[in-house]
Amino acid sequence: MTRCADLAADDSREGTAPPGDRWLLVEHPGPWGRVAFAQSGLPAAAVGAMDAWARASRGRVLLIRRPGRRAGDGPRRWFRVDSRPGHESVRTGTVVDDAGLVDAVTAPGTPHDDPLNLVCAHGRHDVCCAVRGRPLAAALAAADPDRTWECSHIGGCRFAPALVLLPHGFVLGGMTPAEGVAFAAGYAAGRIDPGYLRGRSTDPPAVQAAQRHARLLTGEHGVDALRLVAVEAPAPGRWRVVLGDPDVVVDLAERRVDAGRPLTCAATAPGWLREFDVLGTA
């Protein structure tokens, strides 16, 4: 059976990272509903607290679990991540039951210095995420078990497998398990490879696209390189993105393209794609 990720092999990835300045990750072994944190048996008070946190902080709430394992009845981890440039950080803590999740959105927790590798494996939301995500999660867990988690729906299922590298919020898609292991190791060493980069969650789509092109142009792979200085819209569908460290200006044209097909395995109506053309760089 041909699935959405097969049909999207030639779709442009750049500019498709889901938006989010912060992330709340909650260990919940399952089962996960289609809308993960709202339909997975969590108490209404916890769902309400997490939803309010996400709205107030431009945050994303994900359920996480260890690849290939189910947690027992003991304490479960949570992570609260700040991905904003210059504020990248992770704090963590535990809860003994679902009721404790209400406090996780504001609890101070403790600093967590290691990066986190998240792989979307949310099969109930989209089959491609499970079929392609679980082998990547297994490979990452074999190489770096403490940093690796399966997670619920991220967005852009057609680019499965989706890999999120935190705390920076870089989102990659479509790589093989071996490539994913190499990219995660590079990120832990302070580098980001633009080859499968969809973007950084803190940036709008045009900036995500501009940064990827700037990385390809300059060969600069540092995780903190090419910071956003300014973004302008000189005309409808036109963007000028000014980046620093090193200094690069990227002019882009944004197009909306009818895909002529549903974009996910669960969708029934044809969708549309956002694409960017580079008009010039300086």
From TrEMBL:
Pfam families registered for this protein in UniProt: Suc_Fer-like
Region Disordered, residue ranges: 1-20
Name used for this protein in its record: Sucrase/ferredoxin-like
Organism encoding this protein: Pseudonocardia petroleophila
